[in-house]
Write a structure and sequence with these properties.
CATH class of chain A: Alpha Beta
Radius of gyration of chain B: 20 Å
Order of helices and strands of chain A: EEEHEHEHHHEHEHEEHHEE
CATH topology of chain A: Rossmann fold
Chains: A alpha/beta (252), B alpha/beta (279), C mainly alpha (326)
Largest sheet of chain A: 6 strands, mixed
Number of strands of chain B: 11
Radius of gyration of chain A: 18 Å
Structural class of chain A: alpha/beta
Shape of chain A: globular
Number of helices of chain A: 9
Helix content of chain A: 25-40%
Strand content of chain A: 25-35%
Order of helices and strands of chain B: EHEHEHEHEHHEEHEHEHEHHEHH
Oligomer: heterotrimer
CATH superfamily of chain A: P-loop containing nucleotide triphosphate hydrolases
CATH architecture of the largest domain in chain B: 3-Layer(aba) Sandwich
Structural class of chain B: alpha/beta
Largest sheet of chain B: 5 strands, parallel
Shape of chain B: globular
Distance between the termini of chain B: 39 Å
Number of strands of chain A: 11
CATH architecture of chain A: 3-Layer(aba) Sandwich
Number of helices of chain B: 13
CATH superfamily of the largest domain in chain B: Nitrogenase molybdenum iron protein domain
Strand order of the largest sheet of chain B: 3-2-1-4-5
Helix content of chain B: 40-55%
Largest interface: B-C, 29 and 35 residues
CATH class of the largest domain in chain B: Alpha Beta
Number of domains of chain A: 1
Distance between the termini of chain A: 44 Å
Chain lengths: 252, 279, 326
């Protein structure tokens, strides 16, 4: 089942195309990584697809009503904003708001979803702590839990692992991969080619406002593409552990 | 603004002031009260200019006469250029203006406000002295006394109780000209009962609890102001209910001039109406 | 739940205290009896026409300011947003003064509050434009200073040009606010807009909660930011405009009350809306009791008392904001 379809999709800012001619479909059970150099249009692609930016062409998500969209996709912006010192459980419960009625009284379903999300991100012990007083890594996990609690078939996250320590980066990617294996889909943008290669089932490469490659990591992450797109040389090898990509140096 | 501040009037001719061998020939008045006293007392041609306020029908009883004089804006510079040999000012006139004129060697006669009917008489006499028009002043005093006597009425055993109420809830007690006018007209002043002998801000609910038989409000100023809204508060409406519209025309009592007689007549009429009502 | 009961009880107690406080020497029981039983005589008059409208206005206006403060803070995600400090009240006062001096206020009953709403609308709009979507404290305060100064200058100009000599002295009323000598007429002209604005702001609860996670996340959770922004602007302008039209600009209520109550609602901006409404009503009732106890015979301005409480807190918040490097 298609969770996101983009047709002839483009975004212009100040009459200047920052994204053009994007055609893609995300199906269920996919773990999609969006990679590309800074300013390539990764964030624009995701925000545009969500309907948060004015755009051309079609996006199945942008066409929905705000409420439908809230149940179809969970979005984690790059800025990890927690404006008020609310406790962790309250914050995660915010993810349930697209499912709640006018009275906004959480039902058992809502409490269960929050408990599962907290458990999944190993936050049960922190549930009554004040979110703004947690460490950066803990806050990132709380925000992921919030997105999980939204319980949508699709989760989109903009650089969710930036700023996390290696263990948390790996754990987070594994968590996303396991969501995908349960039949949901995850779309994440990231800069770490090694993690992208190891954990994603599909990679979309964005460069200069265009999708320049879309496929499995093995097909996409060739030395040529890495050199042409990122301007670096890399060690790329398929091992019994899976694909290994290690950036080596900047190509002059 | 203190309403009392408007009742700048009547003369206390300071002993320290210089004396003139002859009558002054070019007199400029810069206060609405001295304006009126001077217009009443001065010889023709003696008074050169009066203040702009003298043409304001709200607080001046002599707007027609004032129209015959050039108006000044009570500023030292302007007054100096009129080359007066005497300036008439009230004691509430800006201190800086008076000082400036004196530094420029222009004699300034400063008049205190009138607080009683006797003060009205004194101010007329003093204005006569200052302008060298003693005879004219004596004539006005005699006329004033005669009319005042004719207004004296058999006072009732129980004078109707009334209150004066102005913008911001200011009231006048017995030690003010307005209070004296009420007293002479045979009205009891609620402000005095409530301890505002000299006047002051009386809260609306204190006024309501004092249950005056009517409330006398000042004439409204031109243009709206929140300060005056209090005079149209529903409570004032209730307190005035069934009583002839009671207003004391500000121009008749703001200054201690013979026009206070008109105010006394108005108030006497109000008192009679209130007594008829009570019967 | 316990907080709601406590706040409602507090408002009720202060409301009764406000009714029995005043310069007229009446016992508390007699006065309440006169209020309820009515009848002829001065006491029911004082209670029903002077003290009741004053206490009702304190509840309405205090509630409005508390609610508007909580809503603005929730939207801007900044605890320094107060309708008084960011110039909304000042702009509303300018609208009101203009309506009074041009005769619009006398022309029809809602002319005054609607003009104040217009002024407030300008103020809210200007702040949101100047401070941006997530106003940093610095731009927010600077925008507030600029708008307040401009609105204050225009207000003073209009009052100075007014023909009535008392008008110029009323600048202090419009800048500091007072409930003295108000009547039921003022309750009736303020009530419709305050109710309408409060209902609009009450619908923001869900959106403001979601905004805790930022604009993008909130919008992706089904919040229409456009609608939220419009509702916020009109709702705030309505409650602050109507309040300012009858009582002048009263500052700091919208700063102090949300700050004090935030910990009790777990910092949830949505829940803070109703809590601040009740808290604002309580604070203004208390302030209005204070002005009558401190100087019973004079019209001590309400803004003086609220600023004495609020300004030190404001300084503390600025200090903390700097320390946190925001």
């Amino acid at each position: 089942m298609s969770l996101l379809t983009l047709r002839e999709f483009g975004v212009a800012r100040h009459q200047c195309d920052v994204l053009r001619n994007v055609e893609l479909t995300i199906d269920s059970g996919e773990m999609v990584g969006i990679i590309g150099p800074n300013g390539a249009g990764k964030t624009t692609l995701m925000r545009g697809a969500l309907g948060l930016l004015a755009h051309r062409g079609e996006s199945s998500l942008a066409a929905m009503t705000p409420r439908e969209r809230g149940r179809a996709v969970a979005w984690m912006p790059q800025a990890r904003e927690i404006a008020w010192p609310v406790d962790v459980e309250t914050l995660v419960m915010l993810g349930r708001s697209p499912h709640m009625g006018l009275g906004r009284r959480p039902t058992k379903t809502d409490h269960d979803a929050v408990a599962r999300a907290l458990d999944r991100m190993d936050l049960t012990g922190l549930r009554s702590r004040t979110a703004t007083q947690l460490s950066g890594g803990e806050q990132a996990r709380v925000l992921i839990a919030r997105a999980l609690a939204q319980d949508t078939p699709l989760l989109m996250a903009d650089e969710p692992i930036a700023g996390l320590d290696p263990a948390h980066q790996i754990a987070t990617m594994q968590e996303f991969a396991s969501l995908a294996s349960e039949g949901r889909s995850v779309v994440v943008s990231l800069h770490d080619l090694g993690l992208a290669a190891r954990h994603c089932t599909r990679l979309i490469v964005v460069d200069k406002g265009r999708v320049v490659a879309d496929g499995t990591p093995v097909d996409v992450l060739t030395q040529e593409l890495i050199r042409d797109t990122f301007g670096i040389s890399a060690f790329v090898q398929t091992t019994p552990e899976g694909l290994v990509v290690q950036p080596m140096g900047v190509v002059p | 603004m203190r309403v009392a501040a408007l009742s700048l009037c009547a003369a206390v001719w300071a002993a320290t002031a210089p004396t003139w061998a002859d009558s002054p020939a070019r007199v400029v008045s810069i206060n609405v009260c001295t304006d009126q006293l001077a217009m009443l007392v001065a010889d023709s041609g003696q008074l050169v200019s009066v203040s702009q306020l003298a043409s304001d029908p709200r607080i001046s009883a002599m707007t027609e006469q004032a129209a015959r004089y050039p108006a000044n804006s009570s500023r030292a510079e302007e007054v100096y250029l009129m080359r007066p040999d005497l300036v008439l000012a009230g004691s509430f006139t800006a201190r800086a203006t008076v000082d400036m004129l004196r530094r420029l060697d222009i004699p300034v006669a400063v008049f205190d406000p009138a607080y009683s009917l006797a003060d009205v008489r004194d101010r007329l006499v003093q204005m006569g002295d200052v302008l060298g028009r003693e005879v004219r002043a004596a004539g006005l005093v005699a006329e004033f006394d005669a009319t005042l006597e004719s207004l004296r009425d058999a006072a009732a055993a129980t004078p109707p109780r009334v209150a004066l109420y102005y913008a911001n809830g200011y009231t006048s007690g017995e030690n003010t000209l307005a209070g004296q006018i009420l007293d002479y007209a045979g009205l009891a002043n609620v402000a005095t009962e409530q301890g505002f002998a000299a006047g002051g801000f009386m809260p609306l609910e204190v006024l309501a609890m004092a249950t005056p038989e009517t409330v006398i409000t000042g004439s409204p100023y031109r243009g709206p102001a929140r300060a005056e809204e209090i005079k149209s508060h529903p409570v004032i409406g209730v307190l005035q209910r069934g009583v002839p519209r009671a207003r004391l025309a500000d121009r008749d009592w703001t200054c201690g001039t013979p026009f206070v007689l008109r105010a006394i007549a108005d108030m006497t009429e109000l008192r009679r109406a209130l007594q008829e009502d009570a019967q | 739940m316990r907080l709601a009961v406590t706040l409602i009880a507090l408002v009720a107690v202060l409301f009764v205290a406000a009714l029995v406080t005043g310069p007229a020497d009446i016992g508390p029981f007699e006065s309440l009896l006169a209020l309820i039983a009515g009848g002829e005589g001065p006491m029911p008059l004082v209670m029903r026409e002077i003290r009741l409208p004053r206490a009702l206005l304190a509840v309405l206006i205090g509630g409005s300011l508390g609610l508007a403060g909580a809503a603005m803070q929730g939207y801007l995600r900044n605890p320094l947003a107060d309708p008084g400090l960011i110039g909304v009240s000042g702009s509303a006062a300018f609208g009101a003064v203009l309506a009074i001096q041009t005769g619009l206020a006398a022309a029809f009953a809602l002319g005054l509050p609607l003009a104040a709403l217009g002024g407030a609308l300008f103020g809210v709009f200007a702040v949101l434009v100047l401070a941006g979507p997530r106003g940093s404290s610095l731009t927010l305060i600077l925008a507030g200073i600029a708008i307040s100064a401009l609105a204050g200058a225009f207000t003073s100009l209009v009052l100075n040009l007014a023909p009535n000599p008392f008008a110029a002295n009323e600048i202090v009323f419009w800048m500091m606010g007072s409930l003295a000598d108000r009547s039921m007429t003022h309750v009736w002209i303020a009530l419709p807009l305050i109710l309408a604005g409060a209902l609009m702001l009450a619908t923001l609860s869900r959106g403001l909660d979601a905004l805790t996670l930022g604009e993008d996340a909130a919008e992706a959770m089904g919040i229409s930011l456009r609608r939220l922004r419009l509702t916020l602007i009109f709702g705030t302008a309505a409650v602050v405009g109507a309040s300012t039209a009858v009582a002048g600009a009263i500052g700091f209520v919208g700063l102090v009350v949300p700050h004090l109550l935030r910990p009790f609602v777990g910092s949830r901006p949505g829940a803070l809306l109703w809590a601040s409404t009740l808290g604002g009503a309580a604070m203004l009732l208390a302030a209005d009791i204070a002005v009558r106890i401190i100087l019973p015979a004079r019209d001590l301005k309400l803004g003086v008392v609220t600023a004495l409480v609020g300004a030190p807190l404001f300084l503390h918040l600025i200090y903390r904001t700097r320390r946190d490097g925001l």
